[in-house]
Design a protein that fits this description.
It contains 13 helices and 49 strands. With 887 residues, the chain is α+β, with helices and mostly antiparallel strands. The chain has seven domains: 128 residues, Immunoglobulin-like (Sandwich), CATH 2.60.40; 52 residues, no CATH class; 90 residues, no CATH class; 123 residues, no CATH class; 139 residues, no CATH class; 75 residues, Alpha-Beta Plaits, CATH 3.30.70; 121 residues, no CATH class. It has a seven-stranded mixed sheet, with no helix packed on it. The N and C termini lie far apart (131 Å).
């Protein structure tokens, strides 16, 4: 047989015919037999039974061998006994020819051939010429590290390789290289006219080579973070070291909507008919409401205003436009810094906890003129309690003893502690003989909005043909696989092919490379917004403006549909919804996710899964997008920049809206991280500890949570079944650990917590102090004034000049001792103090002069010194002054 074939159909044909042939051969090599008997018997199996005496020793010939050749045959018989013989002995089949030889062969391949005794080139009569010979080895049963069969019988031909000039990298060098090669192959062809067909073909190939060379250089350039020029490449390199490059975030702003006179309970929906209500920066004067689709709308949108969209519904009340403070007949009043409650004049039954008010100065305290009001004296607060009450001294209609007493209606409000006033807010003032009331007021009808304009490919008219709807993706169809990119993939037919991998006879199939689909978004920049649960808004107004722990995500969703006979958008039966993810590492094969990759110019490209990590879109599948545009610091517009409301709700008109503004500037807009910033930060990002292993790691992670923790201390304890981390938090302002704070810090620390560690959040251990000092006052100072100044300096409050009292909660933290020198310095700095002697410094209730002798009062690792000197809470520390001298 001169061929090698894996599909041996000849054997099956011979088995069904009258011809006989060799099926296979086995060498008898039983380790239990004596050495002189091993490898000297061959069992040749045939496809059909052999007639007795049909084959003799003259019909069998053994060829081949390297070291041992010309092996003689000493006996041939049909059937016989198997070796080793069984008990009782079992004869072999008549299909088996037993051949005995004089000696075993070597490790090379031998051939057993059946021949005609008269004509050695032909097989015996009745035997197939192809199956009358078989290759075998005497050492097939010997242990060997090599495969007994060749790995490749039909190796591919080796083609001569031409000389390649690897310095050819551009169009001119490729053109010259091709002409030089043609000069060797076709010496007679010397045409160089550009109009010649051959020259045009050469120049076309040179152009393609130049383009491919550029692609190779670009791939090599994008392979390293230090040389990459595309932001998507830098983003992927940074992700390898767990660094998430920032695409920026949009801005948020508080919007004040002034309702027209008589409006009471009108709902302004966040979206109507799936179109969000919008607030625009000023493009026209004296037009607070602009109806969509009107000529005014077209003119205003052509001015390219910055667009903000409402993030929740708002109910409008004309009474909430401006609410006056009530000071209970007192004058020249102010809300102090840190205030969390106030009283409003009149009843406001529609005010409820969760509403946001903006406390604003509307008149200058010195002149009473609106132009002199300080625009920085505005602050947003979220109400936590609203109580309707009365002042019985005014407008009473009954005796004070009547039940219930009635009088001037007032509304008492409280707001969240995180929204405490950051500055004193003047309510009324006097300048000379002039008295100015209502210097500051409270504004209602406040809604939160964020930067970005919604763009939707879905039509308002659902009867349109879905294939005629313009899409924001380019291309909007998934292309089909390119046959030019087909690859031939080998697959195994049977054991023969498995033993001969790479052979030409191994079966092959053609696979088409999946289509490359990376569409570009038509408009930019794509909005990156942090999630905002409108049904569970943040507890405070300040929390609504702070960047959340979770990173902003692209505001885009996709809908796709394949080839369909549907003639209208409503008739589409199968539509898939695709959602964005930061990466596809956690996406499963069937998850309809995609990744948004933003380039330096703001252009956004979409990358889909490969069928293993995320679903792969099907060929001819069409996409429609719904997304928002508007991102970065551009959205940080100044106060009073917004002036127009746009709503698709027919119930909202210019008869409902009297004015729109933003009393406070927008904030939170951050530009996307640049390539240079990512190159500088990503290589060292993996050095940041993202797991809390030790107690110090937990304490450091608590500070990174940005939930108002000044310092934290962690302690490991074995609680019987596992280890528990007890985290003691020193909150800013001396606040305790409440339910809301514990929930926030637990949520933040969850990504740092080690498996097997429980977490408990505890209050700090405050140590109340007992301090006494004797102060000598200079003769020219009043002793009472000096004492008042000392009490203020050693207080736990913020002083009127902005300084903190010595025992302010933020001045002490875990394990920080109280030094005598610090106390002496603070007392001696008070005007009028001549000398100071500290007579007692100890823990409250524990008599000891150890601190006076050592010069400091030591604190344990989890202890914080506290001295409030509050007569209502003497257990929080007491301070005693003995004043001598003075006037």
């Amino acid at each position: 047989m001169i061929y090698f074939c894996c599909d041996e159909r000849r054997r099956n044909l011979v088995e069904k015919s009258a011809f006989n042939g060799i099926d296979f051969l086995e060498v008898v090599d039983n380790p239990a037999d004596p050495f002189e008997l091993r490898q000297r018997t061959l069992h040749v199996h045939f496809l059909h039974a052999l007639a007795p005496g049909a084959l003799t020793a003259r019909n069998v010939r053994i060829e081949g061998g390297e070291r041992i050749r010309d092996i003689k045959i000493i006996g041939v018989e049909t059937g016989g006994l198997a070796s080793p013989p069984g008990s009782p002995p079992k004869p072999l089949s008549t299909n088996v020819l037993v051949v005995r030889v004089t000696e075993p062969g070597d490790f090379s391949t031998y051939t057993l051939r059946l021949v005609d005794p008269e004509e050695h080139d032909n097989p015996p009569a009745g035997f197939d010429p192809i199956l009358s010979a078989v290759d075998f080895s005497f050492k097939v049963a010997c242990q060997s590290d090599f495969d007994c069969r060749p790995s490749q019988v039909c190796p591919p031909a080796t083609l001569p390789q031409p000389e390649i000039d690897y310095l050819a990298k551009d169009y001119a060098s490729f053109r010259r290289l091709i002409f030089d090669r043609l000069a060797q192959l076709l010496p007679a062809w010397k045409e160089r006219n550009p109009a010649d067909q051959g020259v045009a073909l050469v120049e076309l190939l040179a152009y393609v080579g130049d383009y491919l060379s550029y692609q190779q250089d670009a791939v090599a350039t994008e392979s390293y973070i230090g040389t990459a020029r595309r932001r998507a490449s830098v983003r992927r390199h940074a992700r390898l070291v767990d660094y998430l490059i920032s695409d920026g975030s949009n801005a948020r702003v508080w919007v004040r909507v002034r309702a027209a006179e008589g409006v009471d309970g009108k709902a302004l929906k966040q979206a109507h008919d799936d179109r969000p209500a919008q607030v625009w920066t000023r493009v026209r004067d004296n037009q607070p409401f602009i109806a969509p689709g009107s000529p005014d709308y077209d003119q205003a949108i052509a001015a390219r205003p910055e667009v903000f969209e409402l993030m929740h519904d708002l109910t409008l009340y004309a009474a909430h436009n401006q609410m006056r403070f009530y000071t209970w007949d007192a004058q020249e009043c102010c809300l102090p810094k840190g205030a969390t409650r106030a009283t409003l004049l009149d009843h406001f039954p529609n005010l409820k906890p969760g509403d946001v008010l903006i406390l604003a100065e509307v008149r200058g305290p010195q002149t009473g003129e609106p132009e002199d009001a300080d625009p920085k004296h505005r602050h947003a607060v979220r109400l936590t309690d609203v109580k309707l009450s009365h002042d019985p001294l005014h407008g009473a209609v009954a005796s004070p003893l009547s039940s219930p007493p009635r009088g001037l209606p007032v509304t008492e409000i409280r707001w969240h502690a995180e929204d405490a006033l950051p500055f004193p807010l003047c309510i009324s003032a006097r300048s000379g003989t002039a008295y100015f009331g209502d210097v500051s007021v409270a504004w209602g009808n406040i809604a939160l909005a964020d930067h970005g304009l919604t763009v939707a490919d879905e039509p308002q008219d659902k009867t349109r043909n879905p294939y005629t709807i313009p899409s924001s993706l380019a291309p909007d169809f998934v292309p089909r696989s390119n046959p030019a990119l087909a690859t031939r993939v080998s697959f195994e037919i049977d054991d023969c092919a498995a033993a001969r991998r790479g052979s030409h006879c191994v079966g092959r199939r053609t696979e088409l490379a999946p289509p490359r689909y990376r569409p570009r978004l038509a408009r930019a920049p794509l909005t990156q917004a942090a999630p905002y649960p409108a049904n569970q808004p943040p507890a405070s107004a300040s929390a609504a403006m702070r960047p959340p722990v979770r990173e902003p995500r692209p505001r885009i969703t996709l809908k796709s549909f394949g080839p369909s006979p549907a003639k209208t958008f409503n008739e589409l039966k199968v539509m898939r919804t695709w959602t964005p993810q930061r990466d596809l590492l956690n996406s499963r094969a069937g998850d309809e996710n995609f990744v948004v990759e933003v380039e330096t110019d703001g252009t956004a490209y979409l990358r889909f899964g490969d069928g293993r990590f995320g679903s792969r879109p099907d060929a001819d599948e069409r996409f429609l997008a719904r997304y928002r545009i508007g991102n970065g610091a551009r959205g940080n517009v100044g106060a009073e920049s917004l002036a127009h409301l746009v709503s698709n709700d027919v119930g909202i008109t210019d008869e409902v809206i009297a004015g729109v503004s933003n009393p406070l500037p927008a904030q939170g807009g951050v530009d996307a991280e640049t390539i240079e910033q990512a190159r500088a930060a990503a290589p060292s990002a993996f050095r940041t500890q993202e797991r809390a292993v030790t107690a110090e790691d937990y304490a450091a992670a608590a500070l990174r949570c940005r939930v108002g923790v000044q310092r934290a201390a962690a302690t490991f304890r074995w609680t019987g079944s596992w280890r528990t981390v007890f985290l003691s938090a020193d909150r800013l302002g001396g606040r305790g650990v409440d339910v809301e704070f514990e929930r926030d810090i637990r949520r933040c620390l969850e990504r740092f917590r080690m498996a097997g560690h429980d977490l408990e959040v505890d209050d700090a251990r405050f140590v109340s102090l007992d301090l006494a000092m004797t102060v000598c006052v200079k003769r020219s100072y009043f002793a009472s004034d000096v004492k008042a100044a000392l009490i203020e300096v050693f207080s736990n409050r913020a002083l009127p000049d902005g300084r903190r009292g010595l025992f302010h909660p933020d001045n002490f933290t875990f394990g920080q001792p109280v030094f005598l020198s610090q106390l002496y310095a603070a007392a001696q700095a008070v005007a009028g103090v001549d000398s100071v002697v500290i007579t007692r410094l100890q823990r409250q209730g524990i008599e000891s002069d150890a601190a006076l002798n050592a010069g400091r009062l030591e604190m344990a690792r989890l202890e914080i010194a506290r001295l409030d000197n509050d007569p209502d809470f003497p257990e929080r520390g007491v301070m005693t002054f003995e004043i001598r001298g003075g006037r």
